[in-house]
Amino acid sequence: MRKQLQYLYLPLLFFLFGKPGLPAQNESLLIGPGDLLHLQVYDTPEMEQRARVTDAGTIPFSFLGSVKVSGLTPELAAERIEQRLVTAGIMLHPQVTVRVEAYATQNASVMGQVQKPGIYEIDTARKVVEVLALAGGLTDVADRHITIQRAGTAQQKVEYYYSNTPQAALADDPLVYPGDTVIVPKAAVVYVLGDVSKPGGYPISTNNSKMTVLQAIALAGYANHTAAIGKSKLVRETAAGVQEINLEVGAMQKGKKPDVALLPDDVIYIPFSFMRNVGINGQGILAAVSSAAIYSH
User: Fold this and answer.
1) Rounded to whole angstroms, how far apart are CA atoms 228 and 197?
2) pTM, two decimal places
3) 3-class DSSP string for 117-174
4) Domain check: are 224 and 239 in the same one?
5) What pLDDT shows up at residue 14?
């Protein structure tokens, strides 16, 4: 009866605690070219070996030849080797452990609009917000649409939106692996020039990546009392040339006219007075953009 209970509980113990005699594995990183792997087969010490992953992503394994392991977790790589051993008729129920003893690449690159762009050492997968913190965080003109380029795969990219809301930013926080590159582009900018409290450029870094005329004017501190707000205009450079659009800002503020959505590099111009703005046209307004200061929200 005791022996029957042993046979009954052994599968349960194996399910709960894993393969007997083999150490637990760290599954946080994917295997890549150049990594040094330690391979063990339970109760078969003669098959134990250490192997370096080739540029093709394979390792040589006793009796099997090359086995593709790049891009897999150690657990999945072990399962692939087990399947190959069974298919080749070498073992009926192999129990394989794959451990990464040394990673070929232990750095992550952070580029673009961060305070300290550069290469940062990480020896395990880190959340993208943690990697951005290593680089000092985003600059005032950073776009919050961030790209993670996976190491060794030109096509594999992860897009992440770094929300202004902490709960949303942490809800979808992908991992950055050693060898990955984090790219933070520059945000689109709109400009508010003329008779306002703080003329200059303002990055579109709202959570919906959109901005309207009234929002931009509010960021610039609103029009001064000397402004000819009724003569405000939107200047937009298009493929067909410079477009000038009259803005009824007063009617927008009263809700009598719809607020106007802005495009990147749009310029809102609020005149100082009728007399001081004689002869100022769209080209002249666009020329002033080059010397405009860029402000954060």
Assistant:
1) 14
2) 0.59
3) CEEEECCCCEEHHHHHHHCCCECCCECCEEEEECCCCCCCEEEEECCCCHHHHHHCCC
4) yes
5) 40
